[in-house]
Amino acid sequence: MNSKLVTAFIILAMVLTSTTVFAGGTQEVKEVSSIADAAMALGVTEDELRKALGDPNQGGPDFEAAAGKLGVSADKLEKLMKQVGAGMEESVEVEPYTLTLNGIDFEVIYEVFSWEDLPEDVEYERQEIVSLTAEDGSIHYYETVYVSTGNLNWYQAAYLAQEAGGYLACPTTDEENSLLFSLVDDKKYFWAFDEEGEHYGISIGPFLGGYQPAGSVEPDGGWRWLSGEDWNYSNWAVNLDDGVIDKDPRDNTQPNDSGDGQPIMGFGELNEPVPTWGDYMEAVGTYGLTRSPGSSFGFIIEYESNPM
Ligand SMILES: [Ca+2]
Ligand SMILES: [Ca+2]
Ligand SMILES: [Ca+2]
């Protein structure tokens, strides 16, 4: 565990301690400003709370149903979630602006953070750097970042990758893709929809450096890499309907631009960790959004020279 992470944990512990009082055996959280606080006040895990609130792409949350799943009071749940929403507006709503990532301009509405300024409720672990020598003799280096709190989106992750001196990993060969997947072949890196829900437990894995510029023809037009390399290789997930790796009876061949636009991508989008890719909504994992379309538990940074 690096010192930054330890510091983040200590600060988080202090925040939780200072805002929590115990009264008559019921846990009361005085200042509820994040979904983690709300979960704590309800005595459930953050993941349980997010899952109970359901798919944010399908309209507003059904507090009665969610409360039923969690075994808590619907009134209390609704009140807490409104507090979370109210407490987050300022930090989340950003006027559209141009964010330049690896020399490419994106119009975004997301706040980005440097490593130094990451909010204390973003908990992460930077993993050991590994290298791969390509056929042409060039060596690239890869660093996986596990975000246990699941709350950084693609742009926020890409900004951190750039600040570290690299870019979100861009697998341009099967060999490179296999190496990258070996770094995250673990369920902890994949956020899954509810198995009982309408997305059949399909999971979203760590972010990679592919994106579609605004105005690309959907679902598969215009894909390119943050590295600037040509898009000659792809490994999109293919519909299997095998009831194991693909439990979704619908055709979920990727990219499918499902929902309200999916211009970014990562490993997934099947029921088990897979080396295939899915295109995702850009708000997945957005810091501060209580009802983003899912979480993202990490990303991989690629470096063209040894960052150590
Ligand atoms: Ca690469
Ligand atoms: Ca399917
Ligand atoms: Ca998709």
From TrEMBL:
Q: Which InterPro entries match?
A: C-type_lectin-like/link_sf (IPR016186), CTDL_fold (IPR016187)
Q: Which UniProt keywords apply?
A: Signal
What domain of life does the native source organism fall in? Bacteria
Report residue spans for region: Disordered: 244-268
Q: Which residues form the signal peptide?
A: 1-23
- Tell me the Gene3D superfamilies matching this sequence: Mannose-Binding Protein A, subunit A
What protein name applies here? C-type lectin domain-containing protein
